[in-house]
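Section: Multi-chain targets

For targets with more than one molecule, the full set of components is provided together so that the structure can be written out for the assembly as a whole rather than chain by chain. Components appear in the order listed by the source. The example entry contains four components.
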Amino acid sequence: MTRKIGIIGLGHVGATLAHSMVLKHTCDHLVLIDTNEKKVKSDALDFCDMVANTGYPVHITVNDYAALQDADVVVSTLGNIELQANNTNDRFAELPFTSKQVVQVGRDLKASGFHGVLVVVTNPVDAVTQLYQQYTGLPKEQVIGTGTLLDTARMKRAVADRLQVNPASVSGYNLGEHGNSQFVAWSQVRVKGHAITDLFSQEELDAINYESLRGGHTVFFGKFYTNFGIAAAAQRLAEAVINDSHEEMPVSNYRPEYGTYLGYPAIVGRKGIVERIDLQLTEEEKEKLLHSAETIKENTRKGLEHA
Amino acid sequence: MTRKIGIIGLGHVGATLAHSMVLKHTCDHLVLIDTNEKKVKSDALDFCDMVANTGYPVHITVNDYAALQDADVVVSTLGNIELQANNTNDRFAELPFTSKQVVQVGRDLKASGFHGVLVVVTNPVDAVTQLYQQYTGLPKEQVIGTGTLLDTARMKRAVADRLQVNPASVSGYNLGEHGNSQFVAWSQVRVKGHAITDLFSQEELDAINYESLRGGHTVFFGKFYTNFGIAAAAQRLAEAVINDSHEEMPVSNYRPEYGTYLGYPAIVGRKGIVERIDLQLTEEEKEKLLHSAETIKENTRKGLEHA
Amino acid sequence: MTRKIGIIGLGHVGATLAHSMVLKHTCDHLVLIDTNEKKVKSDALDFCDMVANTGYPVHITVNDYAALQDADVVVSTLGNIELQANNTNDRFAELPFTSKQVVQVGRDLKASGFHGVLVVVTNPVDAVTQLYQQYTGLPKEQVIGTGTLLDTARMKRAVADRLQVNPASVSGYNLGEHGNSQFVAWSQVRVKGHAITDLFSQEELDAINYESLRGGHTVFFGKFYTNFGIAAAAQRLAEAVINDSHEEMPVSNYRPEYGTYLGYPAIVGRKGIVERIDLQLTEEEKEKLLHSAETIKENTRKGLEHA
Amino acid sequence: MTRKIGIIGLGHVGATLAHSMVLKHTCDHLVLIDTNEKKVKSDALDFCDMVANTGYPVHITVNDYAALQDADVVVSTLGNIELQANNTNDRFAELPFTSKQVVQVGRDLKASGFHGVLVVVTNPVDAVTQLYQQYTGLPKEQVIGTGTLLDTARMKRAVADRLQVNPASVSGYNLGEHGNSQFVAWSQVRVKGHAITDLFSQEELDAINYESLRGGHTVFFGKFYTNFGIAAAAQRLAEAVINDSHEEMPVSNYRPEYGTYLGYPAIVGRKGIVERIDLQLTEEEKEKLLHSAETIKENTRKGLEHA
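Its structure, encoded as tokens over all components, is:
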């Protein structure tokens, strides 16, 4: 009956996600884990100070891996955002650092007996999701990265702004790496009953593609982190699991034909990836996706060498 | 028909409150104002990146006082939390700094034609609420500080923890300054059908009183700011206004018999303070409240001299 | 600032919709109107008995057209469902009866000075929406019928059941009359990254089409009314207006090329129909739509003759 | 992880409660049981037709007691409201009829292996709760009636109307039978910082007491059933269990000193009645409560004789 969710890493994203979960009463029991014990205890107490004014009960456990044994979902939001700031905003710049933490956290999760769904936000997310899968030993379906779910949201926002429509009324996806090699799969984007390619010139499509990729950079360089958009993506993904919603969404999931985790739509439910979708992409899109997969694999290899 | 809310100051509290309002869809139109234009624009874009995943539309205007002319509620969350860290955590340490900003913001609000309800979170909140009332020229009923609403939540949490009950099932209030001279009015606290004084020894009551006051310090020194608890208090107060809920809650409101704003229960609705409550306090409590009122007035005078 | 919604007709659908609005706190002020004064007063009091347990304030006005002058949205749910039961479930069987009420209500709304958006649920909805537009004198964009929004939901449910996916992850629409001449526009239905026609045989598509049309009949003959599905459709439509959400949804809107109101996707916002969509239908679909439009016009003419 | 709730009896109250649970997404899995199979299947399908427009997944099982084996909460809303209409609105008029059903349902629940919390709405609720406890063999703490939770809401509404305050800002309770022998325990009612007895004359208190008792009658005789207020009470009680909220609320729970179930405040959580409260009542209130307890026991005895 209890709904239990763990969040590992109470930085900007982790704390914002925990706030979202407390406000939306997504679970009964939150387990918060961070190497900065003072910070995570402070956040936990701060959340408890909300209850008298919101009325929703909140049970929080701090820094106890054993409490994750029966968690439904664990979200990894650990990272060191400063590494990106110093490295021209390539998310792979974080890999040598985060990979060490991820290996340890993966082992600790495995030792805890955790057998739910692991949602990965930690960057570079496609590589890190793979690492987690290896070190937790969980089935590939139960380890999911937020992938291009946020980039897709940014693409939809860019389209929606131009057409005065709700972003949720735009369908379609960004595919591939949650990073610089991703792209909008224009063949899949529809809005107002039309293929997007009927509505915009190639120049305009390029501008939207750029915005969906660089949207994160604009946010990033305004405050040197991003939190609200990515937390909303992670919240939605965690809800799809905990509610067994069987929603289709583009997330980082393992695609055997590419030999890597990458952003691609799937049906998400209580067991994690319930079904992989097969899109009918154009030849150009297939090439871009292959290139993006190669980039993920190459950068993962290099990043781990430097770790 | 449109529900419009302004937030002035997108620091830890302002950004957390804006996040809460976006998640709870408290309003249709958010106006965000901050002197750090890059930061506030970054936050605004980050909020827009949530929409495709939440489905709720968000309209955000940045740094435009004119847009506040027809706002229903404006919340002041500006401040410089580092000033507290350097000054033994006395909220009055912020006054010389914030008072200058508050005077300017008050004048800008007045010039905008804003005539809704101003909710003040900026510390020292009782003094700053008074300053805002003077410089905006709004009726006293339309300028409200969060006051001891957060301290009361902390008291209820401390009581609730001891009795294994929901904090919302504890009634009663902390009164006076949102600061070191506040106190729990034990004569008003009831839980499980009993006066709290029947359930705990004086020693234990002192411990609860200390926790409700120092709770903020524990949170503060863990991360050098507090945001979630105070944002939940401000959210509840803003909702009471925008929903015309006529809830009773302890907030900083002007009490003529004390000649100052201070934390004391009132009925809150669309017009702000709809009715002042009159409690039947013990003689000791009356003295403490008088002392707290004097402290607010004295510190306000001193703080403004140093401004 | 106040959000005011009127509901005319507190039968099964009207009462269920009001319940939904109270639970979701869609508005601050509900105006409930019904010719059975005892019933509507009873419902109003029953809603007020919810408040102590939900905490949300509810303001309700009963049977006062003058209170609709500044309403944001009015929903017409009046009707006499027994007329359908006696007439082989053709929604046009209600027209001779409801048309008389609709003319009077339209005039009363006009006299009240109401100038918001009128949402029509009353059957036969396409004909009644047109009548309301004529008698209120509101712009065509401000009078909207729920149309095939419910039928589309039924189609999505039928598709979703077969594919183990969330109905909200199915895109596409039922078009035309909210009645027996409607049809699923298969060219527009996509799910799991595929055109629906790639996934199902014609036989299976026919079965889904039948279910989406007859789904209502199954519900109807189980309890001799339908309320939950249609109330959810009306709730979503009213929310799109009051939140200015600019969502795309298939609703009954006036299409000049067909000379009638009928179910067809549009962008909905605060002003009602913000934009008409133009679909790229197949020739067969175009013919079906033309036929459905003719059916609506013919049945409307006949129904009014018998009124 | 799954949250499963059963509702037995899909009449006015059961269907309204199910609607509330679907709208608030209180659980993942609803089990609906009714002797009128056509009606309950119709309701189930009608709820599924909501999903495409609300986005929340709903899993519904119909008429399968075995599915209740691992339910968290089961709510009994069965009854025959027409029996009240013919019997001067005494809820005990339903006992000879409902007691037979209750015995059978109690046995079926026991046979299913259900071991969660049983919430009883069926009237006469205090008697029926006791019967359910006997026939299910569940611990007394796990069988709870809505009792005077609704009457208390009506009392708070009557007080709130007079004082222009939110009903949720009134504290206190109606005690005893959910029926004619109940009473407001004035010694416990506080509002705006005062004992209610300081604010109203005895005459006015009598009027409020009458309204809180007769409020149900006014609703009842306007539509010959009541549903919204009682469904909100049952929803809150079920949420307190499923969220383990440890809220205090007046519900029908077994009090050994009176030898019966009756309306009296208790702390409610996942295990049901987590703690019994002991109020400090006046002598007059103690006598009224004793009288109400005797009435419940006497009427239960008589009603069962006629069954």
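Chain D touches chain A through 16 residues (CB under 8 Å).
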